[in-house]
Amino acid sequence: MTRPPVRTGSAGAAGAVHFSLLGPLTARRDGRELPLGPRKQRLVLATLLARPNTPVPVDVLTDAVWPDDPPRTARKNLQVYISAARALLGPAGDGGADRLVHGCGGYHLRIAEGELDTLRFGSLARAGRAAAGRGDVAGAARLLREALDLWEGPPLHDLRDSAGVAEEADRLEARCLTVYEDWAEAEIELGRAAVAVDGLRDLVERHPLRERLRAAWMTSLHQSGRQAEALAVYDDYRQLMARELGLEPSPAMAALYRSMLGRGREARRPAVSRRTPAPVALPAGTGAFTGRREELRGLLDVLGGGEERVVVVSGPGGAGKSALAVRAAHLLADPFPDGRVHVRVRREDGTARSRAEVLAELGRWCGIAESRTEIPATATGAEVPATAGALAVLAEAWQEWQARHRALVVLDDVPDEASVRGLLPRSGKCAVLVTARGQLPGLAPVHRIALPAPADGEALELLGKLIGAGRLRTDPAAALRIVRACGGLPLAVEVSGMRLAVLRHLPLAEYADRLDDPSAALDELVAGDVSVRHRIASGWRDLAEPDRWVLGRLAGLADDGCFTLDRATVALGCGERAAIRAVESLIDAGAVTSPAGEVTAHAALYEVPRLLCLFAREQTAAGEPELAATGAQGTAVDREASGRQGAAGDRTGAPAVALSPG
């Protein structure tokens, strides 16, 4: 590609070190390049700089340096590299404190915007998008160009043989590409398409399937009077899509092509109107939101960078999925100038809303349903399409709206793939953030973020926000017992905090004793109208009967809910293959957790979350009708599991889902 010209920018404080990741890893002091040491030391420094002002776990650093087989001395060697990085970085400007400190979350590198090119790049990109949102296209083009001037080539290209560093480098390059697209479109809107033609051509050669780049290249060629070349760009793309993916270009791309066939040089992509204030329909953020720093950072990077259109956040009920999604949506105003909206895909009683209801709500939010007389009000006051034809018309209008706008849609607590498949954008710059209890494996391609139970430190931080840090410090051991008895589940920790905030006289140790009692724990997790048992029961009802029976048997295996495949095979009274399918069905539903990394089924240690485990045992002891009826089939679970694959096809309408809304 044609490399953008490099601008040195302001010099900053004398003697300060300036780091660059948008190209090879470099460090300069007073304009002089500094030696960064051997390769492994540079890998450690690159990993820390790629996650500035955020704790980086020791395991992440170890994997970056020794991805396959760390030596026994890995920790000691890592400390040597950290010491060398401290010497290079020097003290921070605020009183000479260490820049690189170690805490419970790992190594935390404190660095200012002017000292790292990626931080400066992000700041300029956000300012440019904000200017575009205000209608200042010229200001946006200037700021975005200033950001691109920091881009010196493929990020960290000298260290990409490390898988961990390569992943961070790919993320940075995707952000650079998105900013380049923003800049090119701003220049096209200003009538200065010629300045972007050559750079777009080089980038399309490197990223031939990136449609937005190709559309900008087509438009810049057309606006420069090179119509035949612009049409050839589309023909090449159509053939490439058919050959590589068996697909056609998106409707927006095809519409752009048709507009060029019958118009002169003035044809360009329709500009988004920036005069109307962007509609925002988000719940208020919770003041108790705590932790989830890595997951929140990942969401902001993926959605803010524009490289992904659909992101699925999955995890057990009560894990904080909804709170995380709403928090991210509040922080993503700049990348989505055409609005942000939150829509629940379930009713308050836990039943699924119809796709027509959800689509009608989205249509009213963006204004496409206001003039459609074929969408009447129901007896409940909700407007939904009255016929299949009306639903199809509204669905197509929604897709057209998404193709023309840049908005963020949060579809919260999705029960299954079929509920949202027709709502996801086929083209354009809109993004959809989906939260679900189950994995929704039938949705592809999507970016997935699994939300496990938070670490003890994050759970304690949440509890401290609710009961006060001073009270937490009076008995930290009891506080730790409380969050562990809650399985770290944010909903349960929050309910515990709400109870303790009211029961000021209750010692933390006494409440921890109550939660440690398996027969009383769920009775204690009630605060007003918020009941953990009620939320779990809602998810339990979503499970298919065979899955409930399997979960009841697995919950009885161990006090801590952990089990292996061999123990599951014995408990279920079935063969190994049937046991694997039964366990994996519960993993898909979010009722069983599995190891994060790759491991064979025999070596894996699975777990039923503690509170779900207690609830399942209650249902078994109470002789729930479904469990009693299915329990007689214990030795026939092979037949149930072998039929589960066929049932999975039917489950698109009502999949097995465990636990409660996150």
What does this structure look like?
By secondary structure, the chain is of the alpha/beta class. It has 27 helices and 16 strands. The strands form five sheets. It has a six-stranded parallel β-sheet, with helices on both faces. A three-stranded antiparallel β-sheet has the order 1-2-3, with no helix packed on it. β1 (17-20) and β2 (26-29) form a beta hairpin. α4 runs parallel beside α6 (163-189). The chain starts with 16 loop residues before the first strand and ends in a 12-residue tail after the last helix.
| Separate helix tally | 27
Q: Can you count the beta strands? A: 16
What class would the helix/strand composition place it in? Answer: alpha/beta
- How many angstroms does the end-to-end distance come to? 44 Å
Write down the Rg: 27 Å
What is the helical fraction, as a range of percent? 40-55%
| Major sheet description | 6 strands, parallel
Question: How are strands sequenced across the largest beta sheet?
Answer: 7-9-10-11-8-12
Oligomerization status of the protein chains: single chain
Using the alpha-carbon principal axes, give the shape: globular
Low-confidence stretches: 1-12, 264-276, 370-382, 625-662
Beta-strand content: 5-15%
Overall pLDDT: 80
